[in-house]
Each structure stands twice: as structure tokens, then as C-alpha cells.
Amino acid sequence: MAQAYCLKCREMVEVQEPKIVAYSNGAIAITGVCPVSGTRLSRIASWQDDPIIALQIAIQREKQAHEFYLDAAENTTDSMGSRMFKWLANQEDCHRVALEKQLKSRLDKGTWLEWREEIEPVLSAEFPEISEAFGAYSPSTGDIQALEMGIEAEKKAIEFYRNNRDYADDPEAQKMFDWFAEHEEGHRRLMEEELKWIQNGRKFFQLPRFMTR
Q1: Rounded to an integer, what distance in angstroms lies between the CA atom of residue 63 and that of residue 157?
Q2: CB-based contacts of 47: which residues, under 8 Å, 6+ apart?
Q3: Interatomic CA distance for residues 3 and 149, integer angstroms
Q4: Cα–chain center distance at 211
Q5: Is the separation of the CB atoms in 65 and 157 below 8 Å?
């Protein structure tokens, strides 16, 4: 059970009716009430609080990533870049669905579902050589910022899932968190390579998987 400091009781208490709240700045908090005074409680959430909290945080992260990539797809001036961002948004939505299934299993049965790896992560070997590029491209500030922000967000996601993996004591949970960390690492590599291309005046490149949404 998550704890928070109650200003009225002046001590740490168990949070009653805990909820996960995602703020516009990317922060994720646990809110609830003090079981003694009824005071409203709020503090930044941690994956170490409990498996259910960790899953709720992960779900909120994936929702935020989905919305971010959809927004990037709408705002880029390059059609191939738009397709890449839409593919990333779809990937994050698939992650959300998988996490919600795990959360339901934890809430209903207190167990982790057997983890099945259905999608292969993006590998560097899939990237074309920059010499294969066709068509010059003058990237907008928005394109560069979207890629840079996406890269930083993926780095945080990788760290989050790896930390959860180290904290989890169930083999199925460990496999799941390893899988998510590997996939977010693939997304990070993809955007770093795309950023290199457009900064060199090339158009966004395409992977076959972008075409199968």
C-alpha cells in the first residue's frame, strides 16, 4: 500500500482510496485521503510503491507517449515522418493494452499473466544506409524537437522498465519488463537514426513495419 505524509497528522500514513493522476508536465502522482484525519493526500508516485502502482504508472506513461506521437505525426511536414510517428503511437497503444491486461490480472487474481512476446523490437540492422537516401529535406524546428523529446522520453521509459525489472520478484513480471525495456530501446535507436538523417538534409526513412499498421 502506498504511503504519503499527512500535514494534519504530521506523519506518514497509508493512502486510502489511492488514485494515479497524470499531470500535463509529465509528472505522475498518487492521490487519496488520510485514514485518520480525512485530509487529501498527494505525492509523486514511485514504481517501488507496489506492483499495481507500478503498472498504473506504466499505463499513464504509455498513454502520454501515444498522445505525444500522434501530435508529432500531425505536425510534421514530411509524410514519411508522419507515418513513423503514427507507427510509434500505435506501438505505445499496444503497450497500454498489454499493461492493462496485466493490471486486471493483478487486481482480480493477484497474479501476473504469462508473458508472450508477440512483436519483435526494432533492430539497428533494419536501418538503411544514409547513402541510400533520396530527396533533400529541410527539417522544421518542430521535427527536430519532436525527435529530441521522443528520444529523451524513451530513455526515461527504458530506465523505468529496467528499474521495475530489478524490483520484480515474479519471473513473468521480469520477462514483461525486460520486453518493454527492449522495445523502448528500439524506439530510441530509431529516432536517433531518423534525427541523424534529417539533420543531414535527408528525408525521414521508412521501415517495412511502418507500412503494416
Answers
A1: 12
A2: 53, 54, 57, 58, 160, 163, 164, 167
A3: 32
A4: 22
A5: yes
Answer for the pair 12, 4: CB distance below 8 angstroms, yes or no.
Answer: yes
CA dist 105 and 176 (Å) reads 14
As given in the structure block, the three cell numbers for residue 73 are 505525426
The tens-digit pLDDT sequence of the chain (213 residues) is 678 899 999 999 999 988 878 776 667 788 999 999 999 999 887 666 678 888 988 998 899 999 999 999 999 988 899 999 999 999 999 999 999 999 999 889 989 999 887 788 999 999 999 888 777 788 788 999 999 999 999 999 999 999 888 888 889 999 999 999 999 999 999 999 999 999 988 889 989 988 865
